[in-house]
């Protein structure tokens, strides 16, 4: 297997996208930069729900997922939970998916 990616998809409450963007810029992005962890944030394109926001982070191996990711490494479990709690009321659904690249089927 190749790299693993953890993707968190959030459905932002109507009218709350700017607040979510500001929270990510102010509190999430700096932590990922400090931890030197890649973070890709995407919005759905043409025909998709404009309130779907995805956060993707690549990991070299599954064991890296056990650490809890950059937020837990930087803030600890309690601090990370407090930061994630700030999204309450801003995000209606949040789900996480782990994907693995199948090297022999990819190019």
Gist of the model:
The chain has 107 residues and is an alpha+beta fold. The chain contains 2 helices and 4 strands; from the N terminus they run βαββαβ.
Give your account of this protein's structure:
The chain is α+β, with helices and mostly antiparallel strands. It has helices at residues 17-34, 69-85; strands spanning 4-12, 40-43, 52-59, 91-100. The protein has two helices and four strands; from the N terminus they run E-H-E-E-H-E. A hairpin with an 8-residue loop joins strand 2 (40-43) and strand 3. It is globular, with a radius of gyration of 15 Å.
Using brief descriptors, characterize the structure shown:
107 residues, alpha+beta, four-stranded antiparallel sheet, 2 helices, globular
Topology:
Elements (H helix, E strand, L loop, with lengths): L3 E9 L4 H18 L5 E4 L8 E8 L9 H17 L5 E10 L7
Helix pairs in contact: 1-2
Q: Classify the secondary structure makeup into a structural class.
A: alpha+beta
Helix-strand sequence:
EHEEHE
Shape, principal axes of CA atoms: globular
Q: Count every helix, treating DSSP H or I runs of 4 or more residues as helices.
A: 2
Q: For the record, give the distance between the C-alpha atoms at the N and C termini, rounded to a whole number.
A: 13 Å
Query: Strand tally, please?
Result: 4
